[in-house]
Design brief:
This protein is mainly beta. The chain is built from two helices and 14 strands; from the N terminus they run αββββαββββββββββ. It has helices spanning 2-14, 90-93, and strands at 41-44, 52-61, 67-77, 84-87, 100-102, 105-110, 113-117, 122-128, 133-138, 146-150, 156-163, 168-174, 180-185, 188-193. The strands form four sheets. The protein has a five-stranded antiparallel sheet, with no helix packed on it. Strands 8-9-12-11-10 form a five-stranded antiparallel sheet, with no helix packed on it. A two-stranded antiparallel ribbon has the order 1-4.
Length: 194
């Protein structure tokens, strides 16, 4: 009889509130609405006297919080005019993905979702036609931007940013007409096209 009570107690502890609701897969690695905050990239500008990159050294923490260093010998000529870029954007996008930089913001496409990396709150969104585009107005800070970036990928032809008195205006020119839904997730705006 006591085994029956223990079994009943254990079943009550592991039961979900709604057993018909699908369970969440904790180990799922596919990019969904929640964007993992992985390292994207860093640019390192070297002084005008730099001519040969001899070594690259990375310091990282492991699962047990211990710190380790990994060095790679390079010994190749460099042009100091161009920054050295270290990136792991494939952790977010997969190997085929591209991140586009518009103003100080990262923008990318994954499946039918558009991602804009910004902590600024969205004020409003609307659609304009000819060309068909989604316009997003977000809060702004003191920086001024006016830039247009050619994307030419599925769903998006280009993206632009302009600075107004009280907001940034992003204009995303699409390759066709879509319905859309916008959500703010962590430090990202996620635009779901359908």
């Amino acid at each position: 009889m006591s085994k029956w009570w223990v079994s009943l107690l254990l079943m009550a502890l592991v039961a979900r509130e709604n057993p018909f609701e699908p369970s969440k897969n904790v180990g799922q690695t596919a990019l969904g609405d929640e964007v993992p905050d992985y390292f994207r990239y860093v640019n390192v500008n070297l002084p005008s006297t730099a001519r040969i990159l001899t070594k690259v050294t990375l310091t990282y923490k492991t699962l047990d919080a211990s710190t380790h260093t990994e060095s790679v010998d390079v010994n190749q000529r460099i042009d100091w005019h161009y920054p050295i870029k270290v990136t792991q954007q494939a952790a977010i996008l997969g190997k085929q993905g591209k991140i586009f930089r518009v103003g100080a913001f990262d923008f990318w496409i994954h499946e039918n979702k558009l991602y804009l990396h910004t902590a600024h709150k969205i004020q409003r969104s609307f659609v304009l036609i000819n060309p068909y585009r989604i316009v997003l107005d977000t809060d702004r800070d003191e920086q001024d931007f006016r830039q247009k970036v050619q994307v030419d990928e599925e769903y998006v032809n280009n993206i632009a940013i302009e600075t107004h008195d009280n907001f940034y205006r992003f204009s995303i020119v699409l390759d066709g007409q879509y319905q859309y839904k916008i959500e703010q997730k962590n430090d990202y705006l996620v635009i779901d096209l359908h």
